[in-house]
Design brief:
By secondary structure, this protein is α/β, with parallel strands linked by helices. The protein has helices spanning 2-5, 14-17, 32-49, 65-72, 99-110, 117-134, 153-159, 163-175, 201-208, 217-223, 243-254; strands at residues 77-80, 91-93, 144-148, 181-183, 187-189, 212-214, 232-239, 259-267, 272-273. The chain folds into two domains: 1-73, no CATH class; 76-273, no CATH class. The protein has eleven helices and nine strands. The strands form two sheets. A seven-stranded mixed β-sheet has the order 4-3-7-8-2-1-9, with helices on both faces. Strands 5-6 form a two-stranded antiparallel sheet.
C-alpha cells in the first residue's frame, strides 16, 4: 500500500512522503552546506553552459537541491476558488502557484523541459492521494481512472506532446502501489474556445460553458456499470478560476461517469484552502 511504502503520506507533507526525489539532505530553505555542495557543478554549468535551475534560476542543471527541498516541504490541501463556480468538484492541490512553481510548469509545458515530468507527476500523485484520503468513504473498491483535462489540438501540435496526459501517467505510476489506477483521455473539445488569458472568472465560465465532450459518450453510458472507466479523478496542472474543472465535471457526469473530484499540481494564490 502507498501508506505503507510512504508511512506518513497521510500527513500530506511532501517532505514525509518520499515521493519527491532528492540528491542530498536538503532543508526547506537551504543551508551553508548546500551552498558548498552547489559550488563546483554550479561554476561549471555557469561558465561552460550557462545552465540554471528551472525553479530559482541559480546555476545548476535541471532542479537544484535547494528547490527539491522546497518542493518536498509543500503541503497538499483541498482548495476552491473565490468565487466558486457552480459544479466545481472537490479539488486537491499540491501547493501554491508561486514563482518557482510557475517557472516549472511553464518550462515543462511551453519549453519542453521533459526532465521535469517525474517531479511534477509526483506532485500530482500527492494531490490525488490527498483527495482520496480526504473522502469519507475511503479508497475506491475497484479501479480508478485519471482523466486529464484536454489541451487544445493546436497547442499539442505546437509542443509536440500532450503535457497534461504525460503528467497524469507519471502520477498513475506512483499511485499504483496503493490503487489500481489507469489514465484515459475521455474528454475532448466539442467546440473552439477563446484564449483564456486576460479573461475574468465570469468570462472564463462563459467561454468554457458546454465546450467539453466525452469521447464516444453512447458507448461510455452503455458500459458504465460494467467495463466503463469506473470512478475518475480529473487532473490538470493548475486551477485558477475553476471554470475548466467545473466544465470537465459537467461533461463526465452527464455521461454517467462518477467523478470523485479533481487534483492539480498547483493553485493560484487567490484561491483559499478549505
Amino acid at each position: 500500500m502507498l501508506g505503507q511504502r510512504y508511512p506518513q503520506i497521510g500527513d500530506h507533507r511532501l517532505a514525509r512522503t518520499g515521493l519527491i526525489g532528492d540528491s542530498g539532505p536538503v532543508g526547506d530553505s537551504g543551508t551553508a552546506d548546500d551552498d558548498h555542495r552547489l559550488s563546483w557543478p554550479a561554476a561549471v554549468g555557469d561558465l561552460l553552459l550557462g545552465a540554471r535551475c528551472l525553479a530559482c534560476l541559480r546555476p545548476w542543471w535541471g532542479l537544484c537541491p535547494r528547490c527539491r527541498g522546497a518542493l518536498r516541504a509543500r503541503t497538499a490541501r483541498l482548495t476552491s476558488p473565490t468565487p466558486c463556480p457552480d459544479g466545481f468538484p472537490i479539488t486537491a492541490t499540491a501547493g501554491d502557484y508561486d514563482l518557482p512553481m510557475r517557472r516549472l510548469i511553464v518550462a515543462h509545458k511551453e519549453r519542453q523541459a521533459l526532465a521535469l515530468a517525474p517531479v511534477l507527476g509526483e506532485l500530482l500523485a500527492v494531490a490525488c492521494w490527498h483527495l482520496l484520503r480526504s473522502r469519507d468513504d475511503g479508497l475506491p473498491a475497484g479501479s480508478l481512472t485519471l482523466v486529464p483535462v484536454p489541451s487544445a489540438r493546436a497547442a499539442v501540435r505546437g509542443r509536440g506532446y500532450d503535457a497534461t496526459t504525460t503528467l497524469a501517467r507519471r502520477a498513475a505510476a506512483r499511485l499504483r502501489p496503493a490503487v489500481a489506477v489507469r489514465v484515459r483521455r475521455l474528454l475532448r473539445h466539442g467546440r473552439s474556445v477563446h484564449d483564456q488569458a486576460g479573461l475574468d472568472a465570469a468570462a472564463r465560465r462563459r467561454n468554457l460553458a458546454d465546450s467539453l465532450r466525452v469521447r464516444d459518450v453512447a458507448s461510455t453510458r452503455a458500459t458504465a456499470a460494467t467495463a466503463g472507466p469506473g470512478p475518475v479523478i480529473i487532473v490538470d496542472d493548475l486551477v485558477t478560476t475553476g471554470a475548466t474543472l467545473a466544465e470537465a465535471d459537467r461533461a463526465l457526469t452527464a455521461a454517467g461517469i462518477t467523478v470523485l473530484g479533481a487534483a492539480t499540481i498547483a493553485a493560484t494564490r487567490k484561491l483559499h484552502a478549505n
